[in-house]
Amino acid sequence: MPGYLEQNLANLCVDAALAGDWDPAHSYARQALSHRDYRGLPLLIKPHWPETEALLRGGDIDLAREDTRRWGELAGEIPRFRVGYLRSLALLAEWEGDTQQALAHLQEALALAEQIGLPGEQWQILARLGKLYKVIGREGQARHAFGKAGELIQALAAKIGDEKLKAGFLESDTVQRIIGSLAALR
């Protein structure tokens, strides 16, 4: 069943990307694309931006652009799906050196995530905004973005009843990078 195979490969890509393992993430992204059918919404169940980043890091820039374009056509104006599409557009803009466009896409994605109540997306978007603000020397805006991301992380962690899961979340590399970035700006 090609749809399930594509979904599983895409999920493996996301897992590898979130762990920072870009070589396997790139391989899984390419494999997922070889089974991708752009005709239906099952494609939109997963986040899309890790695949975009994996393709970019693997040197498949044109493939990343085309996949994002086609994925965006499917996502349309559905807010939940548009958040991931905007995150992919931000990665493409950042890759091309257009920091202002990347910031604009991320700010739009953040507004949508706030509007529909997606704190898990919000803290990740805020972390990326903080990183970009820091790169262009906007220390105050970077501090604010990382601070808000940290508040959302703490709020989400407070909702995790299992102490082992909570500790794993708070000790993850991604969360620790945000905490480190905020500390560096103080």
Structural features, described:
The protein has 186 residues and is mostly helical. The chain has two domains: 1-99, Serine Threonine Protein Phosphatase 5, Tetratricopeptide repeat (Alpha Horseshoe); 118-186, Methane Monooxygenase Hydroxylase, Chain G, domain 1, CATH 1.20.58. 79% of the residues lie in helices and 0% in strands. The chain is built from ten helices and no strands. It has helices at residues 2-18, 22-34, 49-57, 61-75, 79-95, 99-116, 119-135, 139-158, 163-170, 173-185. Helix 3 (49-57) packs antiparallel against helix 4 (61-75), helix 5 runs antiparallel to helix 6 (99-116) and helix 6 (99-116) runs antiparallel to helix 7. 38% of the residues are buried.
Question: What is the global morphology?
Answer: globular
CATH topology of the largest domain: Serine Threonine Protein Phosphatase 5, Tetratricopeptide repeat
Number of helices: 10
What average pLDDT do the residues reach? Answer: 91
Give the helix proportion (percent range): over 70%
Distance between the termini: 52 Å
The structural domain count equals 2
CATH architecture of the largest domain: Alpha Horseshoe
In percent terms, what proportion of residues is strand?
A: under 5%
